[in-house]
Amino acid sequence: MIYVYIIAGIFIALWLFTPVARSDEGGSIKQFEPPAEIEAKRLLSCVKAVENSPLTSPGGVYQFRRETWEQYSTEPYETASRFDRIAQMEVERVARAHLAWIKRTLKKHGQAATPFVIGQIWNAGYTNWETGRLTFSQVEFGKRILNCYEEGGR
What we know:
- The chain is mostly helical.
- The chain has helices spanning 2-17, 36-51, 66-72, 85-108, 115-124, 126-131, 136-150.
- It has one domain (34-150).
- Residues 19-33 have low confidence and may be disordered.
Protein backbone atom coordinates (compact mmCIF):
# COMPACT_ATOMS: atom_id res chain seq x y z
CA MET A 1 0.00 0.00 0.00
CA ILE A 2 2.90 2.34 0.76
CA TYR A 3 4.02 2.03 -2.89
CA VAL A 4 0.70 3.44 -4.07
CA TYR A 5 1.19 6.50 -1.86
CA ILE A 6 4.76 6.96 -3.07
CA ILE A 7 3.76 6.74 -6.73
CA ALA A 8 0.79 9.06 -6.18
CA GLY A 9 3.09 11.52 -4.39
CA ILE A 10 5.51 11.49 -7.32
CA PHE A 11 2.71 12.21 -9.80
CA ILE A 12 1.36 15.02 -7.65
CA ALA A 13 4.84 16.55 -7.29
CA LEU A 14 5.40 16.37 -11.05
CA TRP A 15 2.01 17.96 -11.67
CA LEU A 16 2.68 20.77 -9.17
CA PHE A 17 6.15 21.60 -10.46
CA THR A 18 5.52 21.31 -14.19
CA PRO A 19 5.90 24.78 -15.74
CA VAL A 20 2.70 26.24 -17.17
CA ALA A 21 2.40 29.01 -19.75
CA ARG A 22 0.97 32.04 -17.99
CA SER A 23 -1.09 34.80 -19.47
CA ASP A 24 0.26 38.36 -19.45
CA GLU A 25 -1.91 41.42 -18.81
CA GLY A 26 -3.02 41.53 -22.45
CA GLY A 27 -4.46 38.04 -22.24
CA SER A 28 -2.04 36.39 -24.67
CA ILE A 29 -0.10 33.30 -23.71
CA LYS A 30 3.63 33.77 -23.19
CA GLN A 31 5.68 31.09 -24.87
CA PHE A 32 8.74 29.60 -23.25
CA GLU A 33 11.95 30.17 -25.18
CA PRO A 34 13.01 26.99 -26.94
CA PRO A 35 16.25 25.47 -25.71
CA ALA A 36 19.27 26.35 -27.81
CA GLU A 37 19.47 22.86 -29.31
CA ILE A 38 15.88 22.97 -30.55
CA GLU A 39 16.42 26.45 -31.98
CA ALA A 40 19.61 25.32 -33.76
CA LYS A 41 17.88 22.28 -35.27
CA ARG A 42 15.02 24.48 -36.44
CA LEU A 43 17.35 27.04 -38.02
CA LEU A 44 19.45 24.37 -39.71
CA SER A 45 16.39 22.59 -41.05
CA CYS A 46 15.35 25.91 -42.58
CA VAL A 47 18.78 26.41 -44.15
CA LYS A 48 18.53 22.91 -45.64
CA ALA A 49 15.02 23.57 -46.92
CA VAL A 50 15.92 26.90 -48.49
CA GLU A 51 19.21 25.72 -50.02
CA ASN A 52 17.12 22.90 -51.47
CA SER A 53 19.48 21.76 -54.22
CA PRO A 54 22.08 19.32 -52.90
CA LEU A 55 22.74 17.80 -56.29
CA THR A 56 23.66 21.07 -58.04
CA SER A 57 26.65 21.99 -55.92
CA PRO A 58 29.58 20.18 -54.36
CA GLY A 59 28.68 21.92 -51.07
CA GLY A 60 25.94 19.39 -50.27
CA VAL A 61 22.65 20.08 -48.51
CA TYR A 62 24.00 23.18 -46.75
CA GLN A 63 25.86 24.43 -49.85
CA PHE A 64 29.11 24.87 -47.89
CA ARG A 65 31.89 26.79 -49.55
CA ARG A 66 35.22 25.00 -49.46
CA GLU A 67 36.71 27.63 -47.12
CA THR A 68 33.82 27.27 -44.66
CA TRP A 69 34.04 23.49 -44.68
CA GLU A 70 37.78 23.58 -44.04
CA GLN A 71 37.32 25.86 -41.02
CA TYR A 72 35.49 23.11 -39.16
CA SER A 73 36.44 19.77 -40.68
CA THR A 74 39.54 17.79 -41.51
CA GLU A 75 37.48 15.56 -43.80
CA PRO A 76 37.79 16.17 -47.56
CA TYR A 77 35.42 18.80 -48.97
CA GLU A 78 33.73 16.13 -51.11
CA THR A 79 32.33 14.65 -47.87
CA ALA A 80 29.86 17.56 -47.78
CA SER A 81 28.02 16.17 -50.80
CA ARG A 82 27.98 12.52 -49.80
CA PHE A 83 24.76 11.07 -48.42
CA ASP A 84 25.95 8.10 -46.39
CA ARG A 85 25.30 8.16 -42.65
CA ILE A 86 28.91 8.82 -41.59
CA ALA A 87 29.30 11.73 -44.01
CA GLN A 88 25.97 13.25 -42.97
CA MET A 89 27.01 13.13 -39.31
CA GLU A 90 30.05 15.22 -40.22
CA VAL A 91 27.94 17.57 -42.35
CA GLU A 92 25.57 18.16 -39.42
CA ARG A 93 28.50 18.70 -37.04
CA VAL A 94 30.02 21.29 -39.39
CA ALA A 95 26.64 23.01 -39.80
CA ARG A 96 26.16 23.25 -36.01
CA ALA A 97 29.71 24.58 -35.58
CA HIS A 98 29.19 27.20 -38.29
CA LEU A 99 25.86 28.29 -36.80
CA ALA A 100 27.50 28.59 -33.36
CA TRP A 101 30.29 30.70 -34.90
CA ILE A 102 27.77 33.02 -36.56
CA LYS A 103 25.92 33.48 -33.26
CA ARG A 104 29.14 34.09 -31.29
CA THR A 105 30.36 36.60 -33.85
CA LEU A 106 27.07 38.51 -33.80
CA LYS A 107 27.04 38.56 -30.00
CA LYS A 108 30.66 39.74 -29.90
CA HIS A 109 29.71 42.69 -32.13
CA GLY A 110 26.52 43.46 -30.20
CA GLN A 111 24.18 42.36 -32.97
CA ALA A 112 20.98 40.32 -32.64
CA ALA A 113 21.17 36.75 -33.92
CA THR A 114 17.79 36.66 -35.65
CA PRO A 115 16.91 34.01 -38.24
CA PHE A 116 16.87 36.77 -40.90
CA VAL A 117 20.42 37.91 -40.08
CA ILE A 118 21.72 34.36 -39.65
CA GLY A 119 20.31 33.45 -43.08
CA GLN A 120 22.01 36.42 -44.73
CA ILE A 121 25.35 35.64 -43.09
CA TRP A 122 25.03 31.94 -43.96
CA ASN A 123 24.52 32.87 -47.60
CA ALA A 124 26.77 35.93 -48.01
CA GLY A 125 29.39 35.64 -45.29
CA TYR A 126 29.87 37.82 -42.24
CA THR A 127 32.06 40.45 -43.90
CA ASN A 128 29.59 41.06 -46.72
CA TRP A 129 26.74 41.28 -44.22
CA GLU A 130 28.65 43.64 -41.91
CA THR A 131 29.60 46.00 -44.74
CA GLY A 132 26.13 45.84 -46.30
CA ARG A 133 27.38 44.35 -49.56
CA LEU A 134 24.47 41.99 -50.07
CA THR A 135 22.87 41.06 -53.34
CA PHE A 136 19.11 40.92 -53.71
CA SER A 137 19.21 37.12 -53.61
CA GLN A 138 21.21 37.16 -50.35
CA VAL A 139 18.64 39.44 -48.71
CA GLU A 140 15.86 37.19 -50.04
CA PHE A 141 17.67 34.15 -48.64
CA GLY A 142 17.49 35.75 -45.19
CA LYS A 143 13.77 36.43 -45.66
CA ARG A 144 13.14 32.84 -46.69
CA ILE A 145 15.00 31.55 -43.61
CA LEU A 146 12.94 33.86 -41.40
CA ASN A 147 9.65 32.75 -42.99
CA CYS A 148 10.58 29.09 -42.61
CA TYR A 149 11.62 29.63 -38.99
CA GLU A 150 8.38 31.43 -38.16
CA GLU A 151 6.43 28.54 -39.69
CA GLY A 152 8.20 26.15 -37.32
CA GLY A 153 10.85 24.80 -39.68
CA ARG A 154 10.36 22.19 -42.35
